[in-house]
């Protein structure tokens, strides 16, 4: 069963930057809607954001401690599945927070961060190209539409939306920003766990061209929507709609696509595709390594050390996906054994840690790292050195939090080189 037009939920459509800036600012724009003014194009260097922001993970680990560990592990697994394993179906979730006025807010993480705010940030980032910011506004419209649809929703209610690739942008440009050949059809279902409503989503990957994207949406929602307006449109569908049904429709449409228009991804995109179940099983074999990275963040170790270990973990995952190695060598290493291996520089790990790093890519960006550090000025001896007797030390100057961090020799080197720009324990900057 497919529900028709009356079940379509749309937020206001995107208004181009040129149209908005042509209006006198005195007229104002509703900042609570989807027509937020996008920043003017600046000459700032454009660089893709990290697909996995270790700075954000560090911040949440410092704030929530052990209670954040589960979220960190899940986030890292999701990143690996989408960016390296290219799993055909990825799962993720949002909390549904019901307000007194009957409205709904979607949130992420243990601090219930607004999903809308998360998706709005890149749309307002002047370092992003116009097409990227426009696409990010599509994600904001999706939040507006799904929140509207979820008001009064019951367990089992099901919604779909499509996230087509940017057909009007070259593949080379898309790939440079973590996008590429593929698109997603997404199915969202309301579930209740321990009294908390959640929106559990599954993104089904496909390689359909623009006309077939429109046909897929019509088959699922009973309404034709142009591919250029599609991102952000939500449709309520029968609760029996499944990811298997969506996958079967996508495959049927792909077969029917004329050869001259058929999107054929490179061999490396499809030859090593992993299922979510297989990736989850294999990733658990190296969870001790991820756990040690989490503990490093808890202790407030330097960003450079955290990044090097996390990227080593990524390199091991990449080798497994590409068939260059397996992860059996890690599955019998205890947590204590992994801690010792990291501290001692065991060759089992250093061959991955010290190797050239090729970042994984998804729609959030490229690779992993501390996103904020890209835009910060370096700390200096002058700004951090405090005299302690006859021995100068670099210490944190955060008097409010009474942070007791003191730089080690390796961290001093990182400060001097500009790689460490803030206190790795509390985040204070001079």
Describe this structure in words.
This protein is an alpha+beta fold and 430 residues long. It has three domains: 5-23 and 30-37 and 88-270, no CATH class; 42-50 and 273-375, no CATH class; 377-430, no CATH class. The chain is 41% helix and 16% strand. It contains 18 helices and 14 strands. The protein has helices at residues 17-22, 54-64, 69-85, 115-123, 130-150, 171-176, 210-221, 227-230, 243-256, 267-270, 276-283, 287-299, 303-321, 328-331, 335-344, 347-353, 381-384, 409-417, and strands at 8-10, 52-53, 89-98, 104-108, 113-114, 158-163, 183-193, 196-206, 233-237, 361-362, 365-366, 368-369, 385-388, 391-394. The strands form four sheets. The chain has an eight-stranded antiparallel β-sheet with strand order 1-9-6-7-8-3-4-5, sandwiched between helices. It has a two-stranded parallel ribbon with strand order 2-12. It has a two-stranded antiparallel ribbon with strand order 10-11. Helix 3 crosses helix 12 (287-299). The N and C termini lie far apart (60 Å). 34% of the residues are buried.
